[in-house]
Amino acid sequence: MKIYQQALQLRARTRGFHLITTEIVQAIPQITEIKTGLCQVFIQHTSASLTINENADPTVRKDFETYFNKAVPENDSDYLHNDEGSDDMPAHLKAAMLGTSVTLPIRNGRLALGTWQGIYLCEHRNYGGQRNLIITAWGE
Question: Pfam families per the record (predicted)?
Fold first, then answer.
């Protein structure tokens, strides 16, 4: 069994859904040594999240942002946590809905994503800053 782990700091991005598959693959080239295994990507933040979805049509990413903004609106007077701005508590809720990690199969040295799948960084803050990931790959 081989186990590899790599930290990756993503550059700051605007609020929205951003494809980061290429950055992840480049950060852990040891995946090519694994014939059968798993890769977990974990984000070390509470106001951004990760998900896997459509990687070809950019309107999907815009529609994700529209949906989550409608589902979890800003400036809700019922929120108690608002010290960091009106986008902070909604960002925590959106991150809780989507999650902090994704796990993907590794097959023949590559992430076994479907034809139209990519890994998204879901940036829920207006000014979230750099985001830190831990990528762990293991297998034989």
Answer: YjbQ (PF01894)
